[in-house]
Amino acid sequence: MSKVVTRFAPSPTGFLHAGNYRTAVFAYLFAKQHAGTFLVRIEDTDRARSKPEYEQNIMETLAWLDVRSDTEIARSSDRVERHKEILAKLIESGAAYVSHEAKKDDSNQMVDVVRFRNSGTTVSFHDEIRGDITFDTTEHEDFVIARAVDDPLFHLAVIVDDGDAGVTHVIRGEDHISNTPRQILLQQALGYAVPVYAHLPLILGSDRSKLSKRKGAKALTEYRDQGVLAEAMLDYLASLGWHPGDDREYLTREELIRMFDLSRVQKGGAIFDETKLFSINQHWMRALSDEAFVARGELVAADESKLREAVPLLKDRAHTFSEVREMLAGELACLFAAPEIEREVLVRKEPADRPGLTKSALQGLLEPLRRLPGDVSAEVVKDTLMPLADAEEAKGKGGRGGVLWPLRYALSGQERSPDPFTLISILGAPESTARIEKAIAILE
Q1: Are residues 305 and 373 in the same domain?
Q2: Least crowded by CB within 10 Å, which of 123, 316, 398, 407?
Q3: To 10 degrees, what angle do helices 420-427 and 429-443 make?
Q4: Do 380 and 350 share a structural domain?
Q5: Which CATH number is 394's domain given?
Q6: Average pLDDT of 375-379?
Q7: For the segment 239-265, what is each residue's pLDDT rounded down to a tens digit?
Q8: Are the C-beta atoms of 404 and 362 separated by less than 8 Å?
Q9: For residue range 135-144, what is the model confidence (pLDDT) as tens digits?
Q10: Is residue 357 part of a domain?
Q11: What are the φ and ψ backbone dihedral angles of 426, each rounded to 5 degrees?
Q12: Confidence grade of residue 95 (pLDDT, cut at 50, 70, 90)
C-alpha cells in the first residue's frame, strides 16, 4: 500500500452532528493506524449557505476531539483558480462542453452551464464496506459540473482537491454512494488515480430517522458544554457502526488507532443513543484522578477540601460535569454551608402514636457521633449508627425511617441528598454534631 492519505471534507452549511464527526474519526483512525496523513478541507463550494460560524464550530469541535489535520486546513474556495484551470482543460479536450439552456427555476432565464460528456459506460468500484458496486452511468446523461465556465460545482471541485492532495482513501457516508460513478468518470478524464472508497452506514436518531444538520441534530459542542469528556465522545463515536472484534467496551485513543479496521464496520445504520454516550462518559470521568476530576470539570467550591472529599460521591452519581455542577449547587450544597431546616419536614416521618420520636432519636445519636474520630469512613459511621436505627425498628412504627430521615434532613436540609453516613464522613463528626444539635433545638 502506498502512503495512506485520508480526508474529512465538511460543508459549513450548518452545525455538523455526530454522524459527520464519526466520519472524521474513522478517517483519522485509519490514517493514523497506517502511519498516514489525515487532512481537513472545508468544502465551501455552496457559497450562499456556507457561514463563518459553522466553519468556526467545525474547528472548535475537531480541536476538542483532538482530531487534527496533519497539514494546514484547506478551503475549497481558496482553490477556485485551480478548479477553473481544470474546467478549461476539460472543455478544451472535448470531455466537457458549454450548454446554453433554461435556468432551473421559474424565471425562464437562459444560462450557460458546463456539462461533462458522459459516454454512458458501466462504472464498477470496490467499496471497503459494501463490496463490489456497479453503476450504469447512462442514467446520469451529460451531467453538470459547473454553473458557468468560471463557477465549478462540488463534483468537479472535490475530485480536483482530492487528486491534488493525493488522497488514497475516501471514507464518507453512504449517502455519497450515488455520487461515486460521476466522480470516477471525472477522475478518469483528468488522469487522477481512483481512490479506495469506504461508504459508512448512516447514523440514525432515536426515532430511527437520519441525523441532519438542517433538522435540529445537536452540534457536538453542546455535549462538550454539558460536560462530556473528549475521550468519551471519541470512544463513543468510534463505536457507532464499528466494533473492535472483542468484548471491550471502553477504548483509549491509542487502542482505537491500533485496532481500527474497516472490515469490522457494519453495513446497517447505527443509533445515536445519548444514554449510552453518558454512560461511557461516566466511565471516563471515573477513570480520572480526583485532582484531574476537579480540574477537568473546572469545579469550584467554598471549601476545597470538602470538594475533594466529595469527588468519589460525584463520580458515583454524575454522568456529566453539568450534572456535577448541578449537584454541588443543589443536593450537595450542604457540604459547604449549614442548611436551613423546617420543623414540619424534620418530623415528617414521626408516627402519630410515637410523639417525640424524632427528638429522642436525634439525641441518641449525639454521643456515638462524638466518639467518632475526625477522619472517618461512611462504612464506619454506618456500623456505628445503624444499630440505633435497628433498635427503633424493633420498637414498632416509625422504625429506621424515624431515625434516618431526620438525621439526613438535619445534615442536608434537602429532601433528596446522599445517605447520612456519607454526609457525616465528609462533614466530619464535629460539624455533623452541631447540625443535629441545631435540629434538636428546633424541636424544643
Answers
A1: no
A2: 316
A3: 120
A4: yes
A5: 1.10.10.350
A6: 91
A7: 999 999 888 889 999 999 999 999 999
A8: no
A9: 999 888 999 9
A10: yes
A11: -85, -45
A12: very high
Check whether 155 has a pLDDT greater than 70: yes
Cell 457559497: give the residue.
47
> What is the rounded average pLDDT for all residues in the chain?
93
Could you tell me if 45 and 154 are in contact, meaning their C-beta atoms sit under 8 angstroms apart? yes
Q: 225-253 burial, b if ≥16 CB within 10 A, otherwise e?
A: ebbbbbbbbbbbbbbbbbebeeeeeebeb
CA 301: distance to chain centroid? 27
pLDDT in tens, 158-197: 999 999 999 999 999 999 999 999 999 999 999 999 999 9
Q: Are residues 294 and 384 in the same domain?
A: no
Judgement on whether residues 392 and 435 belong to the same structural domain of the protein? yes
Pick from 390, 387, 381: nearest CA to 411: 381
Enter the pTM of the model.
0.91
* Same structural domain, 325 and 363: no
Distances (CA, A) of 141 to 115, 153, 192, 393: 9, 17, 22, 85
How many domains, the chain? 2
pLDDT score, position 35: 96
CB atoms closer than 10 angstroms to residue 134? 9
- The cell for 3 is 502512503
User: By mean pLDDT, which of 35-39, 160-164, 255-259, 440-444 is the weakest?
Assistant: 440-444
Bridge partners for 122 per DSSP: 136
Query: What domain range is 301 assigned to?
Result: 290-335
- Residue 132, class by beta-carbon neighbours within 10 Å (0-12 exposed, 13-18 middle, 19+ buried)? exposed
Determine whether 39 is exposed, middle or buried from the number of CB atoms within 10 Å of its CB (0-12, 13-18, 19+). Answer: buried
Residue 362 grid cell: 436525634
- 326 and 408 co-located in one domain: no
Indicate the burial class of 106 (C-beta count within 10 angstroms; 0-12, 13-18, 19 or more).
exposed
Residue 90 to residue 156: CA distance in whole angstroms: 11
CB–CB of 69/88 below 8 Å? no
